[in-house]
């Protein structure tokens, strides 16, 4: 599959930006890729790694030829990035982003760049690693990319962006931005908050030493630590920008947790077993959908 875009500029060359660049080079070799990152070190590293045709020292200069511009910076830095590219943009450039929360970012982009077509997107793919070296071309393969246009947005631009993501290997779905934020609050933001909490709590327990927590982590804790190792700046910004949906979901979670707490206290094994049976089925559905590895222990290799 090829894309109708001829030249993409990627602003922010970390895990996601560098993965897009690598994917374009591999799957859309006719397209030109220009990059920019606010960090001197990330620009230098990106030049060494060579996944862009050109890495510029200035954001506006990076976008002058681009018919597609993708902002791949932390959600809290999107406004700065949009302002910085504004003077260099072609009139017909389509602007997109990959932010993990959509409604507030989309509103901001439309107000900073009122004369451009803005089609926000969120590839639901990632790892706990950050930076230019962390990216890889196949990151988006068989993963969903959610595009969140407004009703009445340029349908041709939406279609071109969808084709671009499909060429990177993603499956594309369109969704209202607020609904996206609610869905992701449940499937991504709350799980991260729980992981950040449990790993922090375990490290502060007085009766259990930190070395014991690490030594016996295979009991389940280890899987939370992978999520809790995710980028602190990125996740700070996601919680600040998807506040309402996260707080609503957290309220519901607290109620369910209290219900399970009561079941344990009252010795209500039936309730616990019914709950755990239902959740096990959800895990099976995720594997059936091809969204995770069916191998035992998440496919970790055994010695
Ligand atoms: P990352 O690896 O930390 O890379 C972000 C890069 O953007 C950093 O090099 C950062 O430099 C740079 N940057 C910050 N402000 C900038 C600006 N104004 N102009 C240009 N560059 C700037 O982050 P990432 O994981 O790729 O995430 C990027 C975006 O993708 C975020 O919005 C995130 O919500 C979204 N996303 C992430 C994942 C994931 O799993 N990681 C998945 C889907 C979507 P400094 O380090 O110097 O600030």
Describe what you observe in this structure:
The strands form two sheets. This protein has a six-stranded parallel β-sheet, with helices on both faces. Strands 7-8-9 form a three-stranded mixed β-sheet, covered by helices on one side. Helices cover 51% and strands 11% of the residues. It has twelve helices and nine strands. The chain has helices at residues 15-27, 40-49, 59-62, 78-85, 103-112, 155-167, 177-204, 210-215, 221-228, 232-241, 243-266, 269-288; strands at residues 7-11, 32-36, 54-55, 68-71, 94-97, 117-118, 121-123, 144-147, 171-174. The protein binds NADP nicotinamide-adenine-dinucleotide phosphate.
Question: What attributes does this structure have?
Answer:
six-stranded parallel sheet, Rossmann fold, alpha/beta, 12 helices, 303 residues, three-stranded mixed sheet, globular, 9 strands, single chain, 6-phosphogluconate dehydrogenase C-terminal fold, binds NADP nicotinamide-adenine-dinucleotide phosphate, 2 domains
Question: Gist?
Answer:
The chain has 303 residues and is an alpha/beta fold. The protein is built from twelve helices and nine strands.
Shape summary: globular
Bound ligand species: NADP nicotinamide-adenine-dinucleotide phosphate
- Give start-end ranges of low-pLDDT stretches: none
Please tell me the overall pLDDT.
94
Set out the fold topology.
Blueprint: E1 7-11, H1 15-27, E2 32-36, H2 40-49, E3 54-55, H3 59-62, E4 68-71, H4 78-85, E5 94-97, H5 103-112, E6 117-118, E7 121-123, E8 144-147, H6 155-167, E9 171-174, H7 177-204, H8 210-215, H9 221-228, H10 232-241, H11 243-266, H12 269-288
Parallel strand pairs: 1-2, 1-4, 2-3, 4-5, 5-6, 8-9
Antiparallel strand pairs: 7-8
Bound molecules: NADP nicotinamide-adenine-dinucleotide phosphate.
The site of NADP nicotinamide-adenine-dinucleotide phosphate (NAP) has 30 residues, from helix 1, helix 4, strand 7 and helix 10.
């Amino acid at each position: 599959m090829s894309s109708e875009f001829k030249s993409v500029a990627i602003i922010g060359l970390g895990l996601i930006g560098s993965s897009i660049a690598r994917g374009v080079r591999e799957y859309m070799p006719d397209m030109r890729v220009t990059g920019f990152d606010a960090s001197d070190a990330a620009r230098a590293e990106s030049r060494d790694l060579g996944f862009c045709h050109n890495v510029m020292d200035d954001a506006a200069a990076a976008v002058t030829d681009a018919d597609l511009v993708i902002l791949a910076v932390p959600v809290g830095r999107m406004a700065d990035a949009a302002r910085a590219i504004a003077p260099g943009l072609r009139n017909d450039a389509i602007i997109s982003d990959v932010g993990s929360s959509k409604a507030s970012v989309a509103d901001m982009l439309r107000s900073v760049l009122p004369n451009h077509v803005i089609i926000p997107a969120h590839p639901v793919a990632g790892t706990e690693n950050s930076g230019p070296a962390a990216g890889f071309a196949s990151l988006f393969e068989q993963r969903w990319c959610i595009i969140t246009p407004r009703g009445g947005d340029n349908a041709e631009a939406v279609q071109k962006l969808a084709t671009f993501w499909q060429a990177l290997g993603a499956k594309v779905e369109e969704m209202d931005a607020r609904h996206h934020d609610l869905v992701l609050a449940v499937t991504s933001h709350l799980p991260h908050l729980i992981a950040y909490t449990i790993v922090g709590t375990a490290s502060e327990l007085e009766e259990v030493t930190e070395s014991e927590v690490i030594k016996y982590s295979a009991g389940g804790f280890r899987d939370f630590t992978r999520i809790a190792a995710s980028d602190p700046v990125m996740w700070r910004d996601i919680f600040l920008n998807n506040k309402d949906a996260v707080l609503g979901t957290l309220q519901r979670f607290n109620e369910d947790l209290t219900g399970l707490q009561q079941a344990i206290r009252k010795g209500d094994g039936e309730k616990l077993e019914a709950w755990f049976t239902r959740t096990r089925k959800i895990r099976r559905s995720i594997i059936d959908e091809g969204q995770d590895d069916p191998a035992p222990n998440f496919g970790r290799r055994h010695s």
